[in-house]
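This part of the workshop introduces the protein records we will be handling. A record pairs a protein's sequence with a compact description of its fold. As an example, a complete record with its sequence and its structure tokens follows.

_____
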Amino acid sequence: MKLLTPLLLASALSLTTVAAEPKHNTALSGGKLPKPVKVSLVKVAGGFVDPVRVSLAPGDNNRLFVCERTGIVRLIKNGKVQDKPFLDIHETVVSSFLEQGLYDLEFHPKFAENGKFYVHYSDMWFNGAGFIVEYQVSKTNPDKADPESARVVFQMPRPYANHNGGEIAFGPDGYLYIGSGDGGWEGDVLGAGQDLSTWLAKILRIDVNPSQPDRGYSIPKDNPFITPASQMKLFGVTEEAFNKIHPNAKPEIWSYGLRNPWSFQFDPKNGDMYIADIGQNHYEEVNFEPHGKAGVNYGWKFMCGTHPFPLPLDASGKPDLDAVKDAPRVGEPPICEYSHVDQGNCVIGFGVYRGSKYPQMDGTYFFGDWGSGKLWGTARDAQGKWQMQELLNTKLMFTGGGQGSDGTLYVTDAKANYGGPADPAQNERGAVWMLVPSDKVPAGAEVAPLE
């Protein structure tokens, strides 16, 4: 065995030495948005059973479709809740546990032409598996779905009852993006975050207009982890080329390293994606993905926010700052993070306001927290640095949001909890709210109560 010289030994040891903590542009609460804005939440309608999302058809801002977790889609038309639901699939949806149920409804970009829309839910008959199903609106009643038109697009087995992700959204490219959690329990016990051979802990991207009629969907040709069949070549291939070969990767994967992306939204103006990724015990985070950037690793389960996971603690149970500083970093850091100590425990994204009605809100991404009722805004300042400002401290329990074609942002809240009851209908009723500047609240309108 050849002995190392002192110089070579020092070089070898340096390979195992972790570099100092890198700089990152992650905003914490306490910043100032580049455009001063004060906001309020104005009540649109109440009386909903665990509302978790609001959807609007392209170009139609007079009808709001409210997803109740139990598997019913309610319709608000011209400000009034309709007696009959738009869609009722409660008999096939399992919703006894808080993180299961009907997650979302998304309209096809060409809904005005084809009448198609898509729902994502946990299926009772398949042990809570995630189902994405295509439906069509009734040919005789535009306020009613045709239950017989159901076509299963995508089916995803779920090992546990939590961390299912949930939101689905059509991107500016016309493809359907799917938020998928790490499969559940806690701490990513399946190691799904960094595993490209599973759909779990990912953002997926599929084409719901399959090239073959007997297929539920097609794979977009520019998805980042498609490895075409080829002969093996050992030499003359660069390291960069080898790094792009993933023979076991799921071709549906768009980005990875996410814990539980319950909500994500596209900026209607430029197609950038914001991902509100629900954290573990200490931190919540918001990730930013520029339009068209594929294959991004957001770090879970090696990272939670900008911090290593598991978080090193000292003898008193507090974060060991020295150990945190020296820990290796993996993946793309978030643009915002906040602590469970005093700011919340479950991040919920609402979207980027893009509308002409409230110019002071333009370009701001809004998000809140289910546990604390706090609401923040984030945007880049003139120096390109992300700023995160607390805008409201409400008594609501945020569950989701939605956006109209005119840019209006909607928010849902529900008084649900992990301890039950098993029947969500026994929970206190939830509501739909609209985000507006405080000086634009209509006279006599009900606003969200503040702490």
About this structure: The longest strand covers residues 145-156. Confidence is low (pLDDT under 50) at residues 1-22. The helical segments are 6-14, 111-114, 239-242, 321-326. The chain is about 5% helix and 35% strand.
